[in-house]
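Why do we care about 3D structure at all? Because function follows from shape, and shape follows, mostly, from sequence. That is the central idea of this module. The next example makes it concrete: a single protein chain, its amino acid sequence, and then its structure expressed as tokens.
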Amino acid sequence: QVQLVESGGGLVQPGGSLRLSCATSGFTFDNRDMMWYRQAPGKERELVARISPGSSRRNYEDSVKGRFTISRVNAKSTVFLQMDSLKPEDTAVYYCYADGLNYWGLGTRVTVSS
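And the structure:
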């Protein structure tokens, strides 16, 4: 049974930081690209970051480049998203996604507001 459990969201002031985690199980983690998506209120879900199985390739959506860092620990089947210099427009529900599985977890809500 595939499980993707996101955590680490919350309320943070502009300029602050959060570290999201996604614990996974039920599939082979270390041979898949992993991704973080987000969905803001009234908007479509968008890809934020992507990481290859060995972490050699990382790609970011333009608006988060230089502020967000995706990483993974294959031994723990976990993927992370370090988010720094947060802006109000980063407010969204964040989801992790395993390439090819077509399965979504419940997400974790991030609110950036003063």
